[in-house]
Specification:
Number of helices of chain A: 21
CATH architecture of chain A: Up-down Bundle
Strand content of chain B: under 5%
Strand order of the largest sheet of chain B: 1-2
CATH superfamily of chain A: Sodium/glucose cotransporter
Number of strands of chain A: 0
Number of domains of chain B: 1
Helix content of chain B: 55-70%
Largest sheet of chain A: none
Order of helices and strands of chain A: HHHHHHHHHHHHHHHHHHHHH
Number of helices of chain B: 8
Oligomer: heterodimer
Structural class of chain B: mainly alpha
Number of strands of chain B: 4
Number of domains of chain A: 1
């Protein structure tokens, strides 16, 4: 890459990292209790909460893996994008009001605590916290590794820096992440998410405009090129096929209301009625940032097929190659900063909910009371989780990829029945939740661990969520009608 | 919203999936490595790979959409005729967009090179983006416009305020 381009990218990335540190320092003064650290004092405005919600949904995977999937499979991964919209709608309809009401009524500082209150069951809260922790560790390790890989490629392109070991990059990027998460907790996290979300949307729109200019006849030219090579790749299902795409649609749409880093943000808003405006802002923000996914993927597939660009060694290089060859240096800088933003906005949410699970939910479920000086322990736990996840990302080999893939499905299978359905259905029982969580975890892990592929490449996570929901409904219906605290029952009735 | 509808639809979804799994899967129905380009997949003839499962997969998709909307309906206050009809209308449009896309795909798979374009995409693919993706945005519109009537009317807000006022002091420590 040309030297000046590398320097511009480095400057953008450095500015972005400095901004994250500044937000951390600013948020430090606003964080004086665990309530602030985990729930932002329930003072988030509509815009901040909406942008934080969509930016933590669009992880680094969406910026790197998404275009890579389009390059590899054609339009198949469009189903992931469109699923997120309906998934966000299901999330807001089911939880926008009720979860926020429960947050005000019982003042929980985490999702498992809200679950404990709903079912009056410490075991259900404990299992939810364990499922969250398992998903967080895998997800976080992949995010940290992705962050370090991006930083490494930025640094090695600058001639006077040269190659930097991945361990140092994990250290630098992890230190910035941990700094603002430890100092400002979720307040720093959501305000950096706000900036990160804005960067992502701008980057995506600029990439779309650039990509259209790369191929003759723009988007139509890309479609025609791909169609001429292999029509199915440009058809509605891409190369994966109809059943596989529908399984992605099911998993992503339904799984959305089981993602703890997303739904906990619904508990942090100032007023219950804020959900009304958060839904459109979140969905449109995500849809705009998804332009990057579609534009880079189709563009790179088309230019390689036309012979204008060498074949990619790895499909996930699609975004990096596009930026390197076709983007203006400033755009490349903004997109790389946007990529780091996408990764960090997801990672910071994971750090926060993971810390809550360790220092608050698990001790309360096991001992029946909270730790003393929770805020201090929350900060210690945040550092510890980041260190463990960082080490895990470097030294656990394939296990990171396994747990990363396991993350979304784990959350979905464990939390969708318990929270999304259970908070809207009085007949749901604690036993049904416990069995549904265990079913989801065991089935999901078995399918991933033994690499079992289902017919037509139906996604294992989608099967896990269906099985988990089935167990939840059946056990609830055959169990005795549960006794619910009167205030919780009133909230479900409202 | 009747609470038995989502489990009923979930059962139908499971049965349809079982039927799909029981069909004989054509070879390479999920694509194969591109003949010339590494890291890229191709899929070959659409009718050959998906023809046998198309009807069942369409059924799976339509039941799945009905299941999604039944979940949306769980959150809406019962006994409201307006919400029932508008949700039903939204569901029909959503199902229609999905079904038209599948129907268009049948033509596309049989004669892919004769396909027409809708904007920059083949018509069947355009149905995914402009139909299946955008039509459900109706539910965002409904949520935003009717929030005060279907989701959180003033009477419910008042009842919630009352709940907060009458909350026993030890409740927060529970």
């Amino acid at each position: 890459m040309e030297e000046h381009k590398s320097l511009v990218i480095l400057a953008c990335v450095a500015s972005y990292l400095v901004m994250c540190l500044s937000v951390g320092l600013w948020a430090l003064r606003r964080t004086s209790s665990t309530h602030d650290f985990f729930m932002a004092g329930r003072h988030l405005g509509v815009l901040v909460a909406s942008v934080a919600l969509f930016s933590s949904t669009m992880s680094g995977w969406g910026f790197v893996g998404g275009p890579g999937l389009v390059y590899q499979m054609g339009t198949s991964s469009f189903w992931m994008l469109i699923a997120t919209s309906i998934g966000t709608m299901i999330t807001f309809y089911l939880l926008g009001k009720r979860l926020r009401m429960l947050a005000e009524l019982r003042d929980p500082i985490s999702l498992p605590e809200a679950v404990t209150a709903r079912y009056n069951s410490r075991s259900t809260g404990l299992l939810t916290a364990i499922a969250i922790l398992l998903g967080v560790m895998g997800y976080l390790a992949t995010q940290i590794l992705a962050m370090a890989t991006v930083l490494q490629s930025v640094l090695e392109d600058v001639s006077w820096i040269g190659p930097v070991p991945i361990e140092i990059c994990v250290g630098i990027s992890g230190a910035v992440l941990v700094f603002y998460c430890v100092t400002g907790g979720i307040i720093a996290s959501v305000y950096t998410d706000l900036v990160q979300g804005i960067i992502m949307v701008f980057a995506a729109i600029l990439v779309l405009v650039t990509a259209v200019g790369v191929v003759e006849n723009g988007m139509t030219g890309m479609s025609e090129t791909i169609l001429a090579d292999d029509p199915e790749a440009m058809g509605p299902w891409g190369t994966l096929g109809m059943v596989g795409c529908l399984s992605w649609y099911l998993l992503l749409a339904l799984g959305m209301c089981g993602q703890p880093h997303v739904i906990t943000k619904l508990m942090m808003t100032r007023r219950i009625q804020d959900a009304r405006y958060m839904l459109p802002i979140s969905v449109f923000g995500y849809a705009l940032s998804a332009c990057l996914w579609i534009a880079i993927g189709l563009c790179m597939r088309a230019v390689v097929l036309q012979g204008l660009h060498p074949q990619l060694e790895n499909a996930d290089d699609a975004a990096a190659e596009f930026l390197q060859v076709y983007a203006h240096p400033l755009l490349a800088g903004v997109v790389v900063a946007g990529l780091l933003a996408a990764i960090m906005s997801t990672a910071d949410s994971f750090l926060n909910i993971g810390a809550a699970a360790i220092i608050h939910d698990i001790p309360r479920a096991v001992r029946g009371r909270s730790l003393k000086n929770e805020l201090l322990w929350a900060r210690v736990a945040t550092v510890s989780i980041a260190v463990v996840a960082g080490g895990f990302s470097l030294y656990s080999g394939n296990l990171v990829a396994l747990l990363g893939a396991f993350g979304w499905s784990t959350f979905a299978a464990a939390i969708v029945p318990t929270v999304a359905i259970g908070f809207n259905w009085k007949r749901a029982t604690a036993l049904a939740c416990n069995l549904a969580i265990l079913t989801g975890l065991v089935l999901n892990f078995t399918l991933e661990l033994f690499k079992i592929t289902l017919p037509y490449r139906f996604h294992g996570g989608a099967l896990s969520i269906l099985a988990s929901l089935a167990v939840f409904y059946v056990v609830s219906l055959v169990s005795p009608r549960p006794e619910i605290d009167s205030d919780i029952e009133a909230v479900i009735d409202l | 919203m009747k609470c038995w509808i989502p489990p009923l639809l979930l059962t139908m979804l499971g049965m349809t999936l079982a039927a799909i799994f029981l069909t004989s899967e054509p070879d390479k129905s999920h694509g194969f490595a591109h003949a010339q380009i590494a890291e890229m997949h191709q899929a070959g003839n659409g009718t050959d790979r998906l023809g046998s499962v198309l009807l069942l997969a369409w059924l799976f998709g339509t039941v799945m959409i009905a299941f999604f909307v039944s979940l949306l309906a769980l959150a809406i206050l019962p006994g409201n005729r307006q919400s029932f009809w508008l949700l039903l209308l939204g569901t029909l449009l959503y199902e229609t967009a999905f079904s038209l896309m599948v129907l268009e795909y049948r033509h596309f798979a049989a004669t892919p090179l004769e396909t027409t374009f809708w904007g920059p995409f083949p018509t069947a693919t355009a149905w995914v983006l402009f139909g299946v993706w955008l039509v459900p945005y109706i539910f965002i519109l409904l949520y935003t416009v009717f929030f005060d009537r279907w989701i959180l009317p003033a009477s419910h807000r008042n009842r919630f305020e009352e709940l907060l006022r009458n909350r026993p002091p030890d409740l927060l420590k529970k």
